[in-house]
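Allow me, if you will, to draw on your knowledge of protein folds for a short while. I have a record of one protein: its chain in single-letter code and its fold written as discrete structure tokens. Could you please explain, in whatever detail you think fit, how the structure tokens follow from the sequence? The record follows directly beneath this note:
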Amino acid sequence: MKLVLLSGGSGKRLWPLSNDARSKQFLKVLENERGEMESMVQRVWGQIKGAGLADSAVIATSKVQVEILQNQLGGVPIIVEPERRDTFPAIALAASYLYAQGVSLDETVCILPVDPYVDDLFFDRIRDLEGALHNSGAKMALMGVNPTYPSSKYGYIVPTSEGDGSGYKTVGRFTEKPSEDQAERLIEQGALWNCGVFAFKLGYMMDTLLREGMPIQYEELLARYASLEKISFDYAVVEKEPHIAVIPYDGYWKDLGTWNTLTENMGLERIGKGTLSDDSSNTHLINELDIPVTIIGISDAIVAVSPDGILVSDKAASPRVKDMVKAGQRPMYEERRWGWYRVLDYTKFDDGTEVLTKRIGLGAGKNLGYRKHMHRTDVWTIISGEGTLVKEGTITPVKAGDVVTIEPGTYHCLKASQDIEYIEVQKGIVVQEEDFEEMFSSWQDIESHCSGREAKVAGAGQSAR
């Protein structure tokens, strides 16, 4: 069995911590058994490893999430979507990738979200999907959660039979987010919550692509990805397939997609600087800034503070935040493969010049790419740590207190020998993340390039400018 974890979506329901670059699965708000804070994706990947499934798993995600996945999980296998185009194109790309890797057409492929909040038995139950496919003769097998209450927030899988005693049922129909009264009647009929987990044979997906006139070769599908229809796998495939089996899962499962559901499972009432009074019952504070927050006499609330903004909301009303967040707002905090950055200030002057100020953290042993900016000047002030600067082939040691100026068109990079933090001031007519041309990303390639050019090594006493 091959596992494909879908990691997508943009962050609105958990604003201001989540944004277009940092979706809910990357928020480090869950406490693990060691008392450390971890994200949903870190928790799930740890469970997959514990179940012995990591060697068979791959994560499908858009290119904007690649670096944060690498930052949080390390060198996990990733299938990169050139852009977000919903779940059917993402699963099609993943299937063609597996096919290109030589995976048998008879191999079972299981699709699941990257962020379910479940107990470990969930992943043992996933193994049973393969047997359900074989025993039922169905084209697809789903896993449904036994409902614990009549929820109007979830979709329901409605079975038509109990199967033949092999542990599966035959799917009759789907009902998407019914009223609570309808949900109660569905539960009486044996309906299950649809948790977004399903399996099929790889050959089934290849046949689907051919039937839809899509290429099955990975490189060709990748090249045509931008032209694919934005459509969910449910609408494109599942609802059209007449032969589907479902297996029930009777363990713990929850979608931590809103502040009220997330805080129920956080374990801590306060993360970050701040104080809650004793009479602030069932109130949670999450503060990513260095400014302390004090909450007095406010109950059943969420207070979330990040560089993107501040949210103060009654928990029951918190799902409405997605309708109030301004679309297209620039993320003020991002995690990258090498560390993180936080936007401190942005100013645009009357003459069109822009100035963007960031605080940047570069992890020990990590490096920036060897790149140049075309339209801006960067000035770095090293706050703490030590590392190595490469600037147009010249290698220079840098440490706290050093100031580095990077002119437009200058190839440069920085490697940290110990954790480095620095302030970066970007100035130019165009100040954008996309303003760069990168020559190399790995330090080995950068060193090799500099050696080939007979790079000059500047002494510690020389100016980094």
In short: DSSP finds twelve helices and 30 strands in the chain.
